[in-house]
Write a structure and sequence with these properties.
59% helix; mainly alpha; 241 residues
């Protein structure tokens, strides 16, 4: 697709329409496929993380609660899928200040929805645990505590997203254990969105190691988690476009 006006000067690092679609509050359900495609685009371009975070910051500050929450879901998926470039960009004051504005009574805090504020605080706290090397995140979080904007540490976000593995492992299979646990959890769910997420995860894993290794990967997953993973088509889901 074509990227939006301003980004068209050079090759657009992101398809802006994808981002709007992923955060569209009028969609009744989260468009996981769209978010995954967005994550792929962000990872594929050196400018991707900076552009995406600028746009996500704007969406997270939206007066529409539904749009802000959608943008936070996209952010959480990016944290999981887009790697260290994304994490270091997210750990800069530029982006952190954008989040702090939503929380601070001096800026948008008075009229930001509680659900949005508590989710931002959960994310910030989770990042201090997962990315200790990003010291500005910790500084920002401590400052919020000092000002009384954060009164106590929230629960880690583990039930929503799995923290990314700390470093890309030497063997492609080492990084998969976390994914197999996530996959096992998604597959147990009766929720269609979870099954679709599982479908994409399986496809992503197969793509990552090359189709020739698909069989070995499935065996490895069965061994490591005691769960047998159906192939995407057996989940009764339409293949991703």
């Amino acid at each position: 697709g074509q990227g939006g006006g301003r980004a068209m000067a050079g090759r657009a690092p992101l398809d802006l329409l994808l981002l709007h679609k992923a955060t569209d509050p009028s969609n009744p359900e989260t468009d996981w496929e769209c978010i995954q495609e967005l994550c792929d685009q962000i990872s594929a371009d050196a400018e991707g993380p900076a552009v995406a975070l600028r746009l996500l910051e704007h969406k997270i500050q939206s007066p529409q609660e539904a749009e802000a929450l959608r943008a936070l879901t996209v952010l959480e998926m990016c944290v999981n899928n887009c790697g260290e470039n994304f994490h270091s960009e997210m750990g800069k004051f530029r982006f952190l200040n954008g989040l702090i504005k939503v929380l601070s009574p001096k800026y948008l805090g008075e009229w930001s929805a509680e659900s949005v504020k508590s989710r931002i605080i959960q994310n910030l706290f989770s990042w201090t645990v997962w990315f200790p090397q990003e010291v500005k995140i910790r500084d920002a979080y401590q400052m919020l505590k000092k000002r009384g904007i954060v009164r106590q540490d929230p629960k880690l976000l583990e039930d929503r997203i799995v923290p990314p593995p700390p470093r890309p492992a030497g063997s492609i299979f080492d990084a998969e254990d976390e994914k197999s646990q996530m996959l096992a959890r998604l597959l147990k769910s009766k929720n269609t969105a979870d099954l679709q997420a599982a479908n994409r995860l399986i496809k992503g894993l197969i793509k990552e190691v090359g189709v020739s290794l698909g069989g070995r990967l499935a065996q490895r997953h069965r061994r490591s988690s005691g769960v047998s993973f159906p192939l995407p088509h057996t989940l009764g889901l339409a293949p991703a476009k």
